[in-house]
């Protein structure tokens, strides 16, 4: 076939572009939440409709819908390496069964960062939901009034959902020292959340207290992917009384 050189170059570029697009790898969520999406079966990679969006920089995300409030679902993430559909035998980007609890609106956002590695050797993963029964666990529990440290199923250490994926637990730490914490779903060690996201071997957040009976708030923000501790200031011991005199407000501190 004869053609002008620029036409041939355009044709080759077009073919190359189409081939490149067809070979683009996709991350696919597979697990116990597939049938809720309308898929024919759970844990069925070739038929998963939960294909993640590539947001750039190693970040991928997808939203799963129609999930039961407070119901546990587990999932993994496969990389089809550009050869769709995904199937078992493809690389497991999320390589352990990872928890996703539905909440009141029936949806959860799953995000994966392939640029970061978690304690399981897979990609750092976060699941945004207000329905996760998180409980804090660590070496601070006795100092906070618990019966023992590192008990992953002590209901007295249940976190409170503040909405928008933000969970908190308030504690008074009796003894100054160095401590650490992460969270579980209260059923044992199989489902954890820590500084490197969700998994079965999450990393703990390290913190220290400097005074006796120090009040702190532990938090996990599953929407922002953040874990930390905030020191709670002591309540003020000064009450302010305002006196109205000649149209002027006079503030007089009075110790109580």
Short summary:
The protein has 256 residues and is mainly β. It has one helix spanning 5-22; strands at residues 27-31, 53-56, 59-64, 72-79, 92-101, 108-117, 123-128, 135-138, 160-161, 166-173, 177-184, 192-194, 197-199, 205-209, 214-221, 226-231, 238-245, 248-255. InterPro entries: Ig-like_fold (IPR013783), X25_BaPul-like (IPR054409).
Number of helices: 1
Radius of gyration: 25 Å
CATH homologous superfamily caption of the largest domain: Immunoglobulins
SSE string, helices as H and strands as E: HEEEEEEEEEEEEEEEEEE
Describe the structure.
The structure is a single chain. The protein folds into two domains: 5-128, Sandwich (Immunoglobulin-like); 135-231, Immunoglobulins (Immunoglobulin-like), CATH 2.60.40.10. The longest helix has 18 residues, at 5-22. The chain has one helix at 5-22, and strands spanning 27-31, 53-56, 59-64, 72-79, 92-101, 108-117, 123-128, 135-138, 160-161, 166-173, 177-184, 192-194, 197-199, 205-209, 214-221, 226-231, 238-245, 248-255. The strands form five sheets. Strands 8, 11, 12, 13 and 14 form a five-stranded antiparallel beta sheet that branches. Helix content is 7%, strand content 44%. The chain has 256 residues and is mainly beta. The protein has one helix and 18 strands. The model is unreliable at 1-22 and 237-256 (pLDDT under 50).
Descriptive labels:
256 residues, mainly beta, Immunoglobulin-like, four-stranded antiparallel β-sheet, 18 strands, disordered N terminus, disordered C terminus
Per-chain topology:
Blueprint: H1 5-22, E1 27-31, E2 53-56, E3 59-64, E4 72-79, E5 92-101, E6 108-117, E7 123-128, E8 135-138, E9 160-161, E10 166-173, E11 177-184, E12 192-194, E13 197-199, E14 205-209, E15 214-221, E16 226-231, E17 238-245, E18 248-255
Antiparallel strand pairs: 1-4, 2-3, 3-6, 4-5, 6-7, 8-11, 9-10, 10-15, 11-12, 11-14, 12-13, 15-16, 17-18
InterPro entries: Ig-like_fold (IPR013783), X25_BaPul-like (IPR054409)
Keywords: Signal
Domain Amylopullulanase X25: 28-80, 135-202
């Amino acid at each position: 076939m004869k053609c002008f050189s620029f036409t041939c170059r355009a044709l080759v570029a077009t073919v190359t572009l189409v081939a490149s697009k067809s070979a683009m790898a996709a991350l696919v969520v597979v697990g116990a939440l597939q049938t809720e999406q309308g898929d024919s079966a759970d844990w069925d990679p070739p038929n998963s409709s939960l294909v993640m969006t590539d947001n750039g920089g190693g970040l991928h995300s997808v939203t799963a819908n129609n999930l039961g409030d407070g119901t546990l679902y587990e999932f993994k993430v496969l990389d089809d390496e550009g050869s769709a559909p995904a199937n078992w035998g493809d690389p497991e980007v999320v390589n352990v069964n990872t928890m996703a609890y539905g909440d009141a609106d029936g949806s959860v956002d799953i995000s994966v960062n392939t640029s970061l590695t978690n304690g399981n050797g897979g990609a750092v993963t976060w699941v945004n939901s207000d329905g996760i029964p998180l409980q804090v666990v660590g070496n601070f529990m006795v100092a906070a009034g618990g019966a023992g440290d590192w008990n992953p199923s002590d209901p007295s250490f249940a976190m409170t959902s503040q909405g928008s994926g933000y969970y908190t637990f308030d504690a008074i730490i009796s003894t100054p020292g160095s401590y650490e914490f992460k969270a579980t779903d209260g059923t044992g060690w199989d489902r954890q959340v820590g500084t490197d996201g969700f998994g079965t071997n999450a990393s703990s957040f390290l913190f220290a207290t400097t005074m006796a009976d120090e009040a702190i708030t532990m938090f996990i923000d599953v929407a922002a992917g953040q874990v930390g501790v905030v020191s709670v200031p002591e309540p003020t011991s000064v009450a302010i009384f305002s006196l109205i005199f000649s149209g002027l407000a006079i503030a007089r501190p009075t110790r109580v």
